[in-house]
């Protein structure tokens, strides 16, 4: 269980005081899931099929009794209050600082859908992101291929960090200090290997209905949201049989997706730090990063913010889960409401 750092405000003080109200069942679920996912990542390509299958199941928890679920939800909300209800307090914390906005895509700006190629954002959401970018440096940080997420968002004024931050490019004109082009591709040497594994995996799983391999340029995503659970073991076996030959790649778990990435130490947290440095805020106290995301990979960015002691992380989730974020939003519609609030706050003449 992550114990949220104490921040100013009576609400969070109460939240910490009431942290013991979590049910034993929820505590068990959190620690079990965390242990399974950590076990998978620590083993890397050496993870057993059982460990991989267990992690896949851990990402799809079964429903609890309604009374337990309501109790867990209330307790979790006290610890991680809504970013909408705490909006004014968040803005007060940002006074005198430059807000920089970081946004995941799937599950944050668009709903999670069965077909990843149809994860479209609404025109209203696009307009909200465009308005935010008028006032604040704004970046999309996604596991998707940078070109693909750009085609979804279609806003040239943003910074884009694709492939979990391993492919970063900034706009021709932006908020950064200096005129240099922002470009970062720390995993470029792995491109031939990624392409080779993509071809092999596609051939190995094509007989499994619903399975899909997505080439995100510097990483691969094996989607199993549409695969019957009784076939998960078979899918896991096929994935392992391919990547066992590539010790420079590692396997991790997302929301109904298996991620295959280079073993280099680079994630969404590193992408956040790179972008802040590119914007001229590497070693300064007058910046307030706001990172909004729904996936386990976004936790790397939340951790960076906690270590820096700057800004806030906001998790998008309807159900309780372990997180390093301070606040929560339930779904993309609430994300849009929060973004519109940022714009209105700026238009009221508030500093930065």
UniProtKB/TrEMBL annotation:
| Keyword annotations | Hydrolase, Stress response
Q: Does the keyword Hydrolase apply?
A: yes
| InterPro entries, per the entry | HAD-like_sf, HAD-SF_hydro_IIB, HAD_sf, OTSB-like, Trehalose_PPase
Catalyzed chemical reaction(s): alpha,alpha-trehalose 6-phosphate + H2O = alpha,alpha-trehalose + phosphate
Its pathway, per UniProt, is: Glycan biosynthesis; trehalose biosynthesis
Which function does this protein serve?
Removes the phosphate from trehalose 6-phosphate to produce free trehalose. Trehalose accumulation in plant may improve abiotic stress tolerance.
> What name is this protein filed under?
Trehalose 6-phosphate phosphatase
